[in-house]
Structures are given as C-alpha cells and as structure tokens.
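Morning!

This is the sequence you dropped in the shared folder:
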Amino acid sequence: DVPLKPVTLELLFSLTVRLFTEGAATFIAKVGGDPIPNVKWMKGKWRQLTHGGRISIEQKGQEAKLEIKEVTKSDSGQYRCVASNKHGEIECSAEMHVDEKKEAAQVEGDLRTKLKNPQEEKDIDIVELLRNVDPKEYEKYARMYGITDYRGLLQAIEQLKKEKAEESGRLVRLTKFHRWFKRFLCQIGKLDPWSNNIQFSSFLKTQIMVSTPTEIIKDWIVKPLKDQHVKPKASATFKCQLYKDTPNWKWLKGEEAITPSDKIEIKKDGKDLELTIKNCQPDDVAEYSLEVEGRTYTANSTAKLTVEGKCRTCATVLKFISPLKDQTVKEGKTARFELELSHENIPVSWFKNDVKIHPSRTVVTQTDGKKHVLEIKEVTLDDTYEGEYTAMAGDSKSTAELIISEAPTDFSTTDQSYVTDAGKPIVMAIPYTAYPKAEAEWLYNNQSLPTDSIYTSADCTEYRLKDPKKSDEGRYKVLIKNKHGGGEAFINLDVIDVPGPVKNLQVVDTADGEVSLAWEEPESDGGTKVIAYVVERRDVKRKTWTLATDHAESPEYTVTGLQKDSFYLFRVRSFTSVVSDVPDAPLNVIVGNVTKFGCTVSWEPPLSDGGSPITSYVIELRDRTSVKWSPVQLTKADELSAIINDVIENKEYIFRVKAENKAGVGRPSAASQPVKIMDPIEPPSPPQNLSWSDQNKTSGIFLTWEPPKYDGGSSIRGYNVERCQRGTDKWEPCGDMVPELKCQVTGLIEGQWYAYRVRALNRLGASQPCKATDEIQAVDPKGVYDIQLDAKLLAGLTANAGSKIELPAEVKGKPEPRVKWTKADLVLKPDDRVSIDTKPGHSTVTIAKTTRDDTSTYIIEATNSIKDVAKTSCFLMWTKPEHDGGAKIDSYVIEMLKSGTTDWIRVAENIVGLEYFLKGLMEKQEYSFRVRAVNVAGESEPSEPSDPVLCKERLSKRKLLGTQTGCDVRRHTGTFFGLICSLNYTSLHLEIDSSVHPDAGVYKVTLENSLGSASATINVKVIGMFLIQTLFWNISQCYVVKHVCFSILRSSWTL
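The structure's back. Tokens below.
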C-alpha cells in the first residue's frame, strides 16, 4: 500500500554510440514505479526533446523509447532519460557520436542486434579492439580473442595506419606491423615464410560486433573531481575514484590531453587517480577533466581550477570591463549575451538559473581574446529559455535576465464585419497577443478616433459607439504596437437605419368598397432590404388610423371593406429586417470529467441572445503560463457542452466560451479555474443504502450496503465498517477491511445500543462515511407469537366418558411467552385428573377419565407486556398482580419513559381492563412502559419496565390460523341476527345464548382490511342439554390499517 518511488530506471543502451550521418539512433529505457512515472528525454542538461519531425518518442508500459531519424553530426552529445512521479525523480544517460559518412566505413544493422552474446557471434570489432593497444601487443590480443579473420585483421591495421596519418598530418609507416603480421601468419601456418604475396587493402568495411559480454556501467566515476581554488604559486590536486581499475583513461585540460612534466604530476593507484598542477598561475585557470572510454562505455568528470585573479604581467584583479546586459527578445529570434574581461584567454562558464549550460545546436559560445559571447537561437515563450543567465570567470561573475516577448502581430482575425441598428450601442473588439501590454490606435477615414471611447486590455482592444449613426458606417483601421513591434487589423461596420418614406403614393382604381393603391420604393432603404410595407387608412371623419395590412410584399395593394360614399386618407410605410446585437457572454463555465486524454467543458446560455437566435458556441483555451487564447472547438447552438481532446497530459489549461449569432461573436465568458489534464484520483463517494438484519445478542448484527456512486478515479479496494456506542461520540472499526458488500459485526455488549456506518476505500484513501443507522440494541429481536393447534382439533373434539384426551399446542415467540389455559373463562389448574405440561415451544393439557363435566371450550393464551407497536401507537397488555392488597383492583395506570430521558411520564389512568391501546406516540422514537395497579388504598409500586420499543410502520395481510364463523366484523363490535359478535385484537368471539338443535351447522367468518381479506368456517353440532355455546377464532398477525395488533394469541377447542 506504500507508493514506490521510480527507482527502477535502466537505459538498455547506455553506451557510447558511434553512428554515421543519415542513419537512425534508438534509445530504450525501462522504467518502473507507483504511480507509473512520467518520462521525458533531454539532450544535454537543459534541452528537452519533443515528439515530431525526426524525433519519435513513445512510452508503452514500463518501456520508454527515443528514436532520432536521419541523424546529423549536430545530434552528437549526451542524451538523458528522466523519470519522475510525485515521490521523486531519477535519470540515466548515454553518449552518442555521429561521424560524417565516408566511403571507407559504414555501420551495418541496428545496434541492438549487434550487442549479442559472444557465444552467439564470433565477429570482433578489430579496429576498436586494437585502437588503444601498443602495436607490440597485437599478437597477444589476436590470440586472446581467437581472431581467425586474417583479412579483417589486415584491414584493421590499414585503418589504424590511415587514422594516425590523418591525426599527425603525415604518412605513418607501419612496416613493423607488416613484419610482425607476416611472422605471425607463418607461425600459425597460414603463410609460406618465403612468400611476399601479402596485400594490404585500403578499403575497410567494419561491422560493429561485440564478442565479449556487454557491460553497461551507469556510473564509472565513483568519486568525481572537485573544483580547486588556490593562490598563485600554490599546487592544485584533482582526485578521482573509478568504478574499477582500467587502463583506458586520460587527463584533459579543456580539449587537450595532459602528459606528465615538471609542472604536471599524474599518479594512479588501482582505481584511484590523481592529477597535481604545481606552481599554479592564472594561465593554468581552466576546466580539467578525467575521461574514461572503452568499447562499451564512456564516462568523464570535470572540475575547474581558479587562481586568485592576477595575471603574469600585472597585479590587477580579474574583472568585467563590459558586463552582461538584460536582453528582451521576440519569440523565435536569437538571444545574444556579450561580455568583455580585463584579461585574455580566461575561460568563462555559462549558467542559467544556476544550472551549467552546455553547447548544443541552439546554444553557441564564442571566445575572441577578452570578448565572450553566448548565443541562444530560436527562443520560445516558455521556461526553457526565459530566466537569469550568469557568466563565471574565476571568482567573478556577471548576471543578466532574458525576457522573451511576442510582438502584437497575432490577431484572432484581421478583417471583421459588424452590423448594428442606428442608435443602438455597439462595441467593436480586436483580440491580440503581445507582451508587454500593447497600445492601440483606432482610425476612421484616416482620422484618429477619440481615446475616451477606446479600451485596451492585455489581450483585446475595443472601440465603443454609444449612438451609432449612418454616418459612422465604413471601414475602421486598428494599429496596435508595443516596444517589440506592431500590427494592424480592419473592421467593416454597417449601420442599419430606418428606411425613407415611399414615393408617389397614388390611387389607381376604385370600386364598390375597394381602393387600389400604388407607390414607389423609398430612396433610402436604411442599409437593408425592404421586406414588407404597412398600409393604413383613416376615415376623414375620424382621428385614428386603422391598419389595412402589415405584409404587403410589393409596392401596390387593394384596400377592401370600405363604406360607399365615404372619404378616406391612406398612408404607406416601408419595413426592413431587424438587425441584432451580438449575444452576451455565456454563464457558469464548468470543467469536469478530467482525464489524461482530455476534459468536458459545459456552460449555460447567455442572458440575452442579442435579439437573434444563437447559431454556435466557440470554446477557447490557453496554457496557464501563456496569455494567448486559442479557439479549440465549435459547437452547435443546442449543445451546451463539449469534450476537449486537443490538450497535452499534465499541462494546466484555462477555458472560456463565446456565443455567436448572425451579428457576430459575443463577449467571452468568465474564465474557468485552471485544470490539470490528468487522471483524477480522489477519495470515493460514500457507500449507499446501508441496512441491517438478523440482530441478536450472540451472533451480532448483519449489515449490507451498495457501492458508492463514484469511485474517485480508482477501483474500490474494500470497505471499513465502524460502530459508535450510545453515550459516546467515538467511532471504532469493527475489524479489518471488508472486500464485499456485507459484514457480520460481532463482539457486541448485550443490552448496549450501537449505530453503524461504512466507508469505501480506493488507492488514495477512505471516503466520507455513509449515513449512519439508527441506534440498535444488542438483544434478541422480539418475535411474533404463534400458536399452532392440531388440525383435527380445530373442528371440535368428541370423546367418550372415561377416556383420556390430550390438547397439544405449539407456542412460538421471543422472548418465551407466558402460557395460560382457561376452561369456560376459568383458569385451568392441574389436579389429580388434569395435568398441564408447558415447555419452551409447546404446551399440552391432558385430562384423564373424562366426564360430562369436562364438556366446555378450552382456551390457550400466550401473553407479553406489549402486544405490538405501530407508527404512532402501541398496544399494551399485562396480568393482574399476585396480591390485590386486600381490596379489589379498581383500575390501572400506565407510565412511559422516552429514550434518552430519565423521567417517567403518566400517559393513561383509570384503565379497567388488562390491555390498552396507547396513541399519540412519535414516529421513530423509542419508549419503555410500566404499569401500576390502583385500589382504595392507593397505587402500587410500578411493574418491571418493558423492553424498549421503536415506533415504526408495519403492514401485513391478515392471516387466520384457526376456523372462523360467518359474522360480519367490519366494526369492533356489532349485532348480527340477534347474536352478539365481538372482535378484539387476538380473537373473534361469537356467542349464541340458549342454543338449540337448529343452531347446528357451518359458520363462516370473513376479515377484511385495506390489504385484502381472509375467511374460515367451523362446523357446530348441538347435542344434549341446552347451553351457552361460545366459539373463538384465532387471528394471527392481524394488522389494522391505523395500528398494529397482537401480542396475545388465543386458540380454543369446543369439547
């Protein structure tokens, strides 16, 4: 889970590459890190390479590739691959040398295919092998490397001869090479000792082959050189430690090799090298370097030697006669820094922002005696070139600043057209790009316009006409300039005025109730085409004009509906199209859905469309480091968002939008906040729909939820479940991260109340918690009581006298209910014939040796203190106290305790029965209840409080467990055919007084509520003497629309 820095960076070809012009060079680097690093390629220390032209840059996964096509000699130099992410940066480098293409040499194949294992390729780069070897050692090296290509060996010797001749400027005789090689061929049996038939060809075709294992050493210099500053006549010592011992090294002063002398001392001890310069003088001031070069590697270390500034002939201190001066250069031009020192031939080092500058294709340094020049070609408007430049000469330095500006020649448009109505204010605008801010001059008919109507900002100049007239119509010229240059643009303005009056209005014909008119077009149409005429008439006896038509398309019209013998006046007006203004700026520009490929820009329409429908929207952007706005996309009028892909990853952009109608492009919207183009990674949104189930005191609680709507740009790794105990505000984790959308929370304290919440996790971290659950008590849930009777007993039981009968019943409920059996409204108690066996889950009554007295209705009841709870009500039930205090119980009192409080509140008094329906409770509030008994002496102590209950809605269909009789029970009590029928919340009671044989038959009961209905039947037999027959129907899970009922269940048998 800990992000890794990009510490794995390996340049697969980090060696000195020698190529010939017109070839191609390829560098491949392997990078690694978390997050995946961004890679950039640099040439030298400060020039960044970009994709395009001859340069191709690719990055696929962990492989970064740089390819340079058609290389030239100017491409020679050091190339660096720099990998970075938010945790750090690392780099590696390689040198490339490009030689002019010669007929005498060529490179065959790609370097990567040449770097083969010596077991697979036996060819040797003989020239490189022998280049730095003493000719006396040629035989030793030929045997060591098993060279059998004797012709190639001869050609290599010839090539070395030619190179030495070019370096020395004279012919080098290699007759001793010839003699040695002839002797060598004779020894190995490849040549007759007396033969002189040996030809040394001047043509050499070299293949770059590596026959020994390629050793790519990233850093040969373990301890690099350090700058030395000494007093005159003192000694300066440069020390360096190599990666390993090697003979391929040399010391350089500038570009010249150093050899030991009375003044120069060179020491070597294994990997340690030392250069001492004795009796230092100002002439010794220079850059000294150690260069290590082999066939597959190259490395160097450079340091400066400075001597306290005195020359050989005078005691003056080194100083700048002409120091550097600040430069301001236009983009694309060449920046030139010049200085002059007090002494000649003093080395000067150049720095930009304290980073040393190395010559390249665009950076050139020149020295002419005391004068030193730094030229930077083709500068651009970015941080690559702008900054502080410093020249160091000994201990002296001179600093100047380079500012790159852009002349105001980049106009968004150089010829615009505006159209406006006469008298309607208009703003004409010309956008430009320049730094620093430019000055603008507006001209009309070659006359300068008043400056109080001109407004110029950093990127736009405007001219405002408050009351345009027809005389203001024409061509406007805009001149804009700053100290770096200038530019011009033109605007064509058309002012639309009202047309003139029509000419020669005449009556050409009259008829019964009609007059035909004709006229000529007006002399002036106001600048736009006449599209219709308006004809009006007026009775000479009246003062008001009446419209005859407003859409006469030609200069003639017949007016109808006139009264005979009446006199009328007529008039005609011409009508032109209405010219609109440009729309207002769009509103609420928002940039969203940002990824490394682009973003989405959305906006709202402007408040005013200028009087003409909007035809399109123009989206513009600019780099945060630039002041230049560029159009990037055009959308239709009904599209209020656009996906922008023409952007560069990891750059910051600012966006704005303009609306356009037929009058032109309106003002831009307010600019958006800067947005960085990259894949967003942020915490996810909270999980959704947290719910719970299966709450109990032993196995805990089971939670489920749904994933968050937004994963934050990274996949969800898991979830953290938290809980908070009542009375504290501390949320504690419920264990380790959960990978699924469910969790079983255990380890709860029985009786305690807990709230739960969940957070989602992605790669960045945890989300905000979801909405917490209500507080839930860690207890077993209260179940619904259920009594199941033997189906054979539901229709009644007939037994012979003296036989044994059993009445079994299954009783279910949590917590275990109290069970009571009654016979004819009397509590049934065990005796020598009657036994009651009640165990958890069931209860059975057994009667031995039955008699006629046992004929009756037997009822079983399961009781708890609270029957059920509804949304705003609760149904309570209790039993009588064991002792009545010596006096009859008159009534009962109910008290209530609201969760979170300590005071009991009296909510009901004078209750006669053993149950009560309590209303007026608050939804989603938790309550506890207790009951007091009242007699003539007063109130008893309160009962034990009930378990806390939560008021909430519960709905269910009625379900009838037992058999029912046919009685209409749409109300709680009622009369049906003279029979008394009543319904409480647990059973239905139908009583038939003085039953007779005709009362026998099948009885049916139907229960109904808003959720449906259910019915049942019971078969009644009348035998023996007259008696009061009572039938009971059990109602299980019976819910009334406005409140929930049951906690007492009854089942009955008629014996």
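Headline: Residues 150-168 form the longest helix (19 residues).

More detail when I'm at my desk.
O.
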